[in-house]
Amino acid sequence: MRYNSEIESIGVKLPEKKLSSGEILKQIKVKKIRLELFTGIRERSICSPSENAITLAVDSISDCFKYSDLDRSDIDMLLCCSISRFGEDNKFIHEPSLSSEIAFRTGITNALNFDISNACAGMMTGLQIASEFIKNGTVKNCLVVSGEHISSICYNAIPNINSLSSPELASLTVGDAGAAVIIKESSDQKYSFESIKFSTLSKYSNLCNGKLSKKSHGAYMKTQMKKIHDISIRESIDILKKSLQESKLKIYDINYLIPHQTSKNAIHEGSKIYEKIFNDKPREVVINLKHTGNTASTTHFVALYKYLKEGRLKKEDRILLLSFASGLEIGIAIFRVNSIIERYGINN
Amino acid sequence: MGSIIKQVATSNNAFSIFHSGYIQRAVVSCYACIKKAKLNLDSVQLLINTGIYKEDYICEPAVSSLIHNKLSSKFSLITTKSTNKFFSFDMSNGGVGTLQALQVLDNYISNGSISNGMVVSGDTEPIKGNSKNYNYSDGAASIILTQNSNPNNGFRHFKTYHHTIKKNNYLSNTRLTNQKLSLSIKENESFLNDCVTLAKESIDKFLLECNINLNEIDLIVSSQSPKGFISQLRENKAFENKLNKNNKGRLHTSGILFELNNAIKTKKFQTSKNILFVSVGAGITVSLALYKN
């Protein structure tokens, strides 16, 4: 289904403090883990003591408005899509909603706001909700934001990793980040979302789970890495085919496919399978892990932002965002690059 | 605009130790809701969970997918194909999350993106005995909304009012202290009064926007939290006869659905033309909806 909404601007906040894969491996008993080689992650951003999920979200919103033609008072709806709900002093916040705190701190006080939680598919879920509200005429401009302060998953995994089959191995890939995207009512149908589809395969909801840790601050996450990867790729083929068919597209029409950023090897493997199935491939499959790691619900927009800032995209390039998340959530969004490109890029 | 309520179901029985926790209660209420609606599980295309307090402090996956997985077993439905049209996620916004989730469903249904959607809500103390000031009852409730062929009835208008100046009146968070996860809820003495005052102000504004007078409202379905909210609202003569007289509930996110279920059981819902939904929560946030029968 085609929507009448498009991306107006994107903002990102990456903490300045870095943690390298080398530093992580020095602390692990198992010596055979080729973390950077397999994942492509050299380093990831880590929150300083004064940063948390809320500050990441707030800072990414400030960054977003630097590129936006809109004012804070133009925002009708604000959705916070973070998995992590850590505020000051490592408190896990239940109420009030993170969205209301973020709205208060950013002066977006006229907007309908609430929190969404859908694991790493959070921001893309927010994208669909925003687009449904815009399509229904309920709102005109929606801000979708996420602040992921998830590095505790990595720190909490380190003492528990005793073998290459440890269920906490995937936790070593995560990094902190905030991302914000403004979705507006389209003025030109050419640039509106051609498709935003989601499917929840709840039978596989046990393959990755995360809870608050009772031993140390933050959370822990356990993942059946190989299984969730194989099932995600396998099950995404039908939804990909359907989305492309409905949008009257072939895979080759996609200039940039941005999958959920987990590991370089996993993305390469998935790409090869798609190439076999579709007998063709997108122009480029984006891998943006080297300096950020897996930033959970923000990965697609952190990657998109980087490509915009580096001037790698052209107007009318077609982008496909592919989401995989515990649940098991599979999501796709397809759109063309609009005039947003004029506000980013190396020369701006 | 204009989705209609197809069915509501609740679950608050104190089960055996094998059936405690929010997820199990949620599954029971969803199952009952779908069965009473004479639907199949695969007729429900979107499930939104709005419960805040759940067992074991689960962060991911979304609890809605865990609920759907257990529901699938009850319906003997194994859904493994991604071309299935089911999608789920969690939403939260304190005491108003459930009513806001109905607005989300209403948007999806009004656009024709789905035919039937379900909201499930409820709470349970995450770790029994490890909380300060957690006074909510365990319970879960579900509601199914469906497409509406009559443009003059169903949900007509939704609105949420955010009063962030009162944001510190109710704070709820969990901390790790001495290797124990402890939930702490801090509610100012003025929280209840502020909720009632702001709810009344918001109702006035909302009815003006909807171009309807309070005396045209036949029934008010309200959230149960904070404790004493419905009783205090009822002290206002204008609301007295429109609210549940026998409310003793202490439910949080599911309270409004329990109130709705009660109104349906006593036939008050069916015999009311104009129904006002009111919920309040931390923020302080007031969420309202107008429904026409």
Rounded radius of gyration of chain B (Å): 18 Å
Helical proportion of chain B, percent range = 25-40%
Main sheet makeup of chain B: 5 strands, mixed
Spatial strand arrangement across the major sheet of chain A = 1-8-7-4-6
- Unreliable spans of chain A are none
Through-space gap between termini of chain B: 14 Å
**What order do the strands of the largest sheet of chain B run in, or round the barrel if closed?**
1-7-5-2-4
Global morphology of chain A: globular
SS content category of chain A: alpha/beta
Q: β content of chain A, as a range?
A: 15-25%
Number of helices of chain A: 9
How far the N terminus sits from the C terminus of chain A, by CA atoms, comes to: 34 Å
Largest interface, counted with CB-CB under 8 A?
A: A-B, 68 and 61 residues
Provide mean pLDDT of chain A, rounded. 95
**Structural category of chain B:** alpha/beta
Low-confidence stretches of chain B: none
Report the average pLDDT across residues of chain B: 92
Q: Give, in order, the helices and strands of chain B.
A: EHEEHEHEEEEEEHEHHHEE
Summed up, what is this model?
The complex is a heterodimer of chains A (348) and B (293). With 348 residues, chain A is α/β, with parallel strands linked by helices. Helix content of chain A is 30%, strand content 24%.
Features:
A: alpha/beta; five-stranded mixed sheet; 30% helix; 24% strand; B: alpha/beta; four-stranded mixed sheet; 13 strands; globular
List the helices and strands and how they pair.
The complex is a heterodimer of chains A (348) and B (293).
Chain A lengths: L4 E9 L4 E3 H6 L8 H5 L3 E3 L7 H14 L10 E4 L11 E4 L2 H9 L5 E6 L4 H14 L5 E8 L2 H7 L19 E9 L9 E6 L7 E5 L6 E5 L1 H22 L9 E4 L4 H15 L5 E2 L13 H11 L8 E8 L3 E8 L12
Parallel strand pairs in A: 4-6, 4-7, 12-13, 12-14
Antiparallel strand pairs in A: 1-8, 2-3, 7-8, 9-15, 10-11, 14-15
Helix pairs in contact in A: 3-4, 7-8
Chain B lengths: L3 E8 L10 H15 L9 E4 L8 E3 L2 H12 L12 E6 L4 H14 L5 E8 L7 E2 L6 E8 L7 E9 L7 E8 L2 E8 L3 H20 L8 E4 L6 H6 L2 H4 L14 H11 L8 E8 L3 E8 L1
Helix pairs in contact in B: 1-2
